Structures are given as C-alpha cells and as structure tokens.
Amino acid sequence: xxxxxxxxxxxxxxxxxxxxxxxxxxxxxxxxxxxxxxxxxxxxxxxxxxxxxxxxxxxxxxxxxxxxxxxxxxxxxxxxxxxxxxxxxxxxxxxxxxxxxxxxxxxxxxxxxxxxxxxxxxxxxxxxxxxxxxxxxxxxxxxxxxxxxxxxxxxxxxxxxxxxxxxxxxxxxxxxxxxxxxxxxxxxxxxxxxxxxxxxxxxxxxxxxxxxxxxxxxxxxxxxxxxxxxxxxxxxxxxxxxxxxxxxxxxxxxxxxxxxxxxxxxxxxxxxxxxxxxxxxxxxxxxxxxxxxxxxxxxxxxxxxxxxxxxxxxxxxxxxxxxxxxxxxxxxxxxxxxxxxxxxxxxxxxxxxxxxxxxxxxxxxxxxxxxxxxxxxxx
Length: 379
Ligand SMILES: *Cc1c(COP(=O)(O)O)cnc(C)c1O
Description:
- α2 runs parallel beside α9 (232-242).
- By secondary structure, the protein is an alpha/beta fold.
- The radius of gyration is 21 Å and the shape is globular.
- β5, α7 and β6 form a beta-alpha-beta unit.
- It folds into two domains: 10-242, 3-Layer(aba) Sandwich (Aspartate Aminotransferase, domain 2); 245-378, Alpha-Beta Complex (Aspartate Aminotransferase, domain 1).
- A seven-stranded mixed β-sheet has the order 1-7-6-5-4-2-3, sandwiched between helices. Strands 8-9-12-11-10 form a five-stranded mixed β-sheet, covered by helices on one side.
- The mean pLDDT is 96.
- The longest helix has 20 residues, at 245-264.
- The protein contains 14 helices and twelve strands.
- It binds pyridoxal-5'-phosphate (PLP).
- Pyridoxal-5'-phosphate (PLP) binds at residues 73-75, 98, 100-101, 141, 145, 170, 172-173, 192, 194-195, 204, 206.
C-alpha cells in the first residue's frame, strides 16, 4: 500500500459492534468479563484500549514497522527507551538534540549512572571512537533542531549493528511521510506526535515504532508498568490528524521551498538553514534518505542583532510567535530565548545558534500570504 492509502486506512477497521467507519473514542477504564480471566483482549485501559490500539497499528504501518506504542508525550516515549537500560550502560547521542531530550538524559538519567556521550555525528568515525562494551543505544535526531543538520541514518546503523547496539531515531521533524528510519536500519523510531502527526496543535503525545517482537514486548512492558499512556480522546484526535498527513506534508514542503528561496535572496539575511539547498553541507544525504525537505527553516540576520530579531518576531501577523511546530498554522520561534534557552550561549554559538537566529515552522496557509508577512516583518 502507498503512503496516502495507509494514512487513511491502516489500523482502522469499521467498529465490530456497530460498523462505525471512524474509530470510536472508547472512553472507558475497564471492561466486563463474563467469567474471571475470560475477556476480549481488554482488561484495563492502561494495558490496552481499542482507540489506542487503532492508532498504534496506524503508526506502525506508516513507519514500516510491526508494532506501535503510544505515550502521553514525546518525552514519555524516550523515557521508556532509556528504561531498557541499567546502571553502567552508555548512550551515544547527537549533540544538537531537542532540549527536552538533552535535559532528560543529563538531568534525570545521569543520576542513575547511565552515561551519555554527545557528538555531531557528521563524521561517523566520531561515533565509533565513543563506542565501548557498555554502549547500548545510539540516539539520532535528523534533521536537527534548530540548525537543520542532516545525519546519515544508514551509516550510523551500520556502526550500531556491527557492535550490537540499538539505533533509535527521533523522526519528529521529518515525519514518516519524508523519512522511514526502520528502512534505513533503525531499531526504534520515535515521534513527538504533538507535532506533524497530530498536526493541529491540539494534542501532546509520543510514540515508538519497532520491528522486532522481543523489543516490542520489552517496551510494551515498560509502557504498561510505568504507565505514561495517552487517553482515548487524544488517540482519536491523532487518528483524525493522520488521515491528512500526506496532504499536509506536501503543502508544508511546497511552502517551505518557496519561503527558503525567498529568504535566501533577502538583503537583511545572513544564513538560511534548510536541507533542500544544494549548498547545505549534507544535501546529498538529505536527498538520499528523505522524500522531500520539509517545512522547518531557520535563518540568521546580517549583523546578528538580537533586537532586530525580536522586532521581526513582534511584527508578524500570520506567523504566531510560539514554541512547538508541525501544526497547520505557521509558527516562528526565537531559539536562543525560547526553545534553547537552557543551552549555554557558548555552546549555542559553537553550533551556529546565534542570537539573531529565527526558526520557522512553515504551515499550510497560502505561500503568498506567508511571504508577504515575512517581507513586512523584515522591513
Ligand atoms: C517536541 C519534541 C520532542 C518532545 O516531545 P513532547 O511531545 O513535547 O514531549 C522530542 N523531539 C523533538 C524533535 C521534538 O520536536
């Protein structure tokens, strides 16, 4: 089945009791049993819920995996992965990670004697140098946030498997429409469903997709034992969002391209970070592992003046100044004061995250209106 058909049909069967085409919201915590232990696969909604089951199947199909697992947030999903580990284990991770993931690793799990090593991963030799006999997971985010670096998933996968290490990929920015890490060698794909999969900025949720049966059982055990599961109403909203994922992504990519081109030629702009440019340092890898380049774009200003960046952000009329991304509406963000404020300034500048950097999540509005909005704010 092709992607658009899967987005609409995968995991979603007409409801067996009524024939309802849309998966009902099974707003129930428990299920009646005619005789003790005699049930229809549902005992208690932390363990299983039919609305969540439908969403988990849909996500597994979209990522070309066999099993999906949903969590109450993206960080809840990553938390479940790290719970596979024990004290003394080590993780090698991308160095410009989503800030919340960095915080979870360094502020929570470091206390439990799990070691985290960070590297840019632009050179895979970097990863190999950090592998020890205790390395259990390599954690990759690509494209990265907010610098839009691209990491070669296939190459990292080869190193991971040579050493018997699990490869996990945060696929939030790309979505399964643009990139399928399992096909490139990943063992676990993670999503902040809050972003493009939900797509309407009305749900916070996370998900994992895996291919291996034992890995699914281990993660499902953690999902049920730790209990960070999403409710059925939220699962329903995401099932609805996914039905238009391919349509939304097409427009996000189309608008992203037009806006990246517009910004590139603007006299006030220093750099535009978008993997679709031939001049992007890993454009060839992006072209090989992604179907298109997405709607996330960052740019910096000539002179790198923070006050000018603020003025631009205050003058948008269509772009909303807000954290998060991936919704139908366009958002703008100032990483140095908003999403990446917890990263020290020297560390930020090392990766190019300067004070005038603005990150855009380009929505699915009419591109002309978005460009007019940018033109006005920049003037
Ligand atoms: C938002 C985000 C997360 C965290 O997900 P939540 O749903 O906010 O917990 C993780 N990774 C990336 C790339 C994100 O953008």
